[in-house]
Amino acid sequence: MYKLDIGVIISLEKVLESGVREIKDLGLNVCQLNGWKSENFTEENAEKVKGMMEDNDINISSLWVGWPGPAIWDFIDGPSTLGLVPKEFRFERMKALKKGADFAKLLGVTDITTHVGFIPENPSTTEYMETVMIIRDVARYCKDLGLYFNFETGQETPITLLRTIQDIGLDNLGINLDPANLLMYGRGNPQDAVDMYGDYIRGVHVKDGLYPTDGHHLGNETPVGEGMVDFPVLIEKLREHDYKGALIIEREISGPRQREDILKAKEVLLGILQGIPSL
Question: Is residue 221 classed as helix, strand or coil in its secondary structure?
Fold first, then answer.
């Protein structure tokens, strides 16, 4: 049996307000902590969260760090609002990511993760070269703290992400594979992307979805097993690349259905893992 930890995304704000009961109630012991509000990245909060995780035997796989300013998740306004690509937001977002890195260090977490935005496909443009420079600055800050900086997939093609990593040229860069995002943004086949990303994969989101059907809006997210991600093939490919990280379930809805879909995804994953022999 291929043994991987199964976890879930949970917001830092929710943990600070109500603890980790939600994670325990799902029968999980791993989470990716999601922090969008940099004002919460304090030493006091780090000690509080670290204590709760240790007391409940929960591991934080990585800290997902958000950034200030507008965020429109579509094909029209997304390129000008998301991540480090839009130059008018770069400086403030760089500061937020560095503050998140400091917080991760206080938590004892080894990786931070984020969306860097719609990385330009053309490597000869000024926008691309400036984006590489600003990411390198943040990644070097992480390196000095002993942390990995992980790109969450989705808004760029796999080859553009690989080129960006190569052009940045640091050895603490990783990838958080979100297979549904590759589909929902129309960027690629997630199963094939595993072979392209290879050893750069340090985290995986378990999320399912569909290709977009128009040029304005992303494809729809679905419950795991109802979209176009072939999870048995994807997880087998992860095994071939000796992936040892966690499988982090993400379901971007709210209410009782979210919990139902997370538990369903957990059962799907357990079934797949049991059918794959370890190397």
Answer: strand
Residue 64 is assigned to a structural domain of this protein: yes
Would you state the pLDDT for residue 278? Answer: 79
The pair of three-digit structure tokens given for residue 18, joined into one six-digit string: 């109500």
How high does pLDDT run on average in the chain? Answer: 97
Taking the C-alpha atoms of residue 20 and residue 47, their distance in angstroms, rounded to an integer, is: 14
User: Does residue 1 lie within any of the structural domains?
Assistant: no
pLDDT digits (tens, 9 = 90+) for 148-199: 999 999 999 999 999 999 999 999 999 999 999 999 999 999 999 999 999 9
217 part of a folded domain: yes
Contact 86, 118 (CB under 8 A): no
Q: What is the CATH number of the domain that holds 78?
A: 3.20.20.150
For the chain, the domain total comes to 1
pLDDT digits (tens, 9 = 90+) for 217-258: 999 999 999 999 999 999 999 999 999 999 999 999 999 999
CA-to-CA distance for 157 and 120, rounded, in angstroms?
A: 10
Measured between its terminal Cα atoms, the distance across the chain in Å is 9
pTM across the whole model = 0.97
Instruction: Tell me how far apart the alpha carbons of residues 90 and 152 are, in angstroms, rounded to a whole number.
Output: 18
Residue 148: other Cβ atoms inside 10 A: 24
User: 160 phi and psi, to 5 degrees?
Assistant: -65, -40
**Which residues constitute the domain of residue 233?**
6-274
- Token digits of residue 242: 């000796």
Band (pLDDT 50/70/90 cuts) for residue 277 is confident
| One-letter amino acid for residue 20 of the chain | V
